[in-house]
Structures are given as C-alpha cells and as structure tokens.
Design a protein that fits this description.
The structure holds 2 protein chains of 2 kinds. By secondary structure, chain A is mainly beta. Chain A is 0% helix and 49% strand. The N and C termini of chain B lie far apart (37 Å). The chains are: A mainly beta, B mainly beta.
C-alpha cells in the first residue's frame, strides 16, 4: 500500500519569505500522480499543483513550485513571496494512474502541514 | 461552471440516529469520491463511484455506512445508527473520466454526533 508522510506538522514564516514544505511517499508503482492541496479555514480543499511521475520537469504554478525527486520518493512544495492568503493546511497526496481495472484512483493523503504566514 | 457542492454544511445529530449527506459533483464528471477527515485519522478514502457503480468500497469503515449515486450525478452517503466516532468532516470530490486526473473537492459536511 502507498503511504505519504509529511514530517512538518506546523510551519510559520513572515510574509514575502520563501517556505518549503516536505513530503515523502512510498510506492512500488512507476507511474503515478502527486498533488499538493491547500485547505484554508473554510474547509475547501483547493488544488495547488500536480506532478506526473513520468515527467522529469518540476511543475510550477506562479509562486508555487515543486522539487520532485523520483528516486528519493520526495515531493516538496516551495512557496515563493509568501502571502497572508497562503495561510492554510497543506496536504500532499498520491494517486495511482487511471487504469481500465477500477478501484485504483483514490487519493492517499499525508497528515498535513499547518502553514501560517505572519504579517 | 459550478463546483462540487455538498449539503448540509453542518449536521448535528444524536447517537443512534441515521444521517444522509449529499454531494452534487461538477457537471460531466463521471468519477465521484467520498473521503472522511477526522482529527485522529486524517483524510481517509471511503468510496469511489464511476457512473452509478461503486467499484471500490474498500474505505467504508463498517456496514453502517453506505452510499449510492443516481443518474451518474448526485450521490448520497448514509450513516445508520451514528456513533460518536463518526464525527468528522465528510468531503466529496469529482473527476472527469478522461484528461487531467485532478479531483475537485466540495466544501464538506461537518458531522457532529452527540
């Protein structure tokens, strides 16, 4: 079974600083997907960024980028120029690829990192 | 277009009562998921629908939990004879069958069993 580990329960940085959230995972699969989701106090889970394991290039979305190290099974999230609105719980998640045989597309989540951006 | 919606937003019930939680996925999304988020267990997968069928029910914690989906759209998660350990946020997500693999989440239903 796949497992996802986020080793930082809480982090706090000043506004405009850069922060990196760690995530490691365990799988025997070669192709899969990795995600970072953000959950603000509103409870809405919002996709931040996704990475396909077969792509060597790290995904980027504006101020958000990942450092995907497939051999090390590491998938960290970097937030540049952090903003107050980035304050939220951040979840790393793993998903096997969609296949004809059903039942393999569920997300496996880490325990989350509570990130606070201070003014 | 509208996102995933869930109702009710919050539900307080007494131990032993039955509850129904509703999810309206994004229009055209054939895959639908239920997850549970609790303090002790984090985010757990409950059940997956493709169309109206549920090929993966492996996450349902007991036979008190059931779910159905009708018309390939709305899904209802039912918890019978609720227990205090059922208190959690229940999240629904949907995904297109083809193309991007991203699951889009609703705002969740917070269930409190007294």
């Amino acid at each position: 079974a796949q497992t996802v580990t986020q080793s930082q329960p809480e982090m706090s940085v000043q506004e405009a600083e850069t922060v990196t959230l760690s995530c490691t995972y365990d799988t025997s699969e070669n192709n899969y997907y990795l995600f970072w989701y953000k959950q603000p106090p509103s409870r809405q889970m919002i996709l931040v960024i996704r990475q396909e394991a077969y792509k060597q290039q790290n995904a980027t979305e504006n101020r958000f980028s990942v450092n995907f190290q497939k051999a090390a099974k590491s998938f960290s999230l970097k937030i540049s120029d952090s903003q107050l609105g980035d304050t939220a719980m951040y979840f790393c998640a793993f998903m096997k690829p969609v296949r004809i045989i059903q039942g393999a597309q569920k997300l496996v989540f880490g325990q989350g990192t509570r990130l606070t951006i201070n003014p | 277009g509208a996102g995933v919606s869930q109702s009710p937003s919050n539900k307080v019930t007494e131990k032993g009562k039955d509850v129904e939680l509703r999810c309206d996925p994004i229009s055209g999304h054939t895959a639908l998921y239920w997850y549970r988020q609790s303090l002790g267990q984090g985010l757990e997968f409950l059940i997956y629908f493709q169309g109206n069928s549920a090929p993966d029910k492996s996450g349902l914690p007991s036979d008190r939990f059931s779910a159905e989906r009708t018309g390939g759209s709305v899904s209802t998660l039912t918890i019978q004879r609720t227990q205090q350990e059922d208190s959690a946020v229940y999240l629904c997500a949907s995904r297109r069958r083809t193309g991007k693999e991203t699951q889009y989440f609703g705002p969740g239903t917070r269930l409190l069993v007294l």
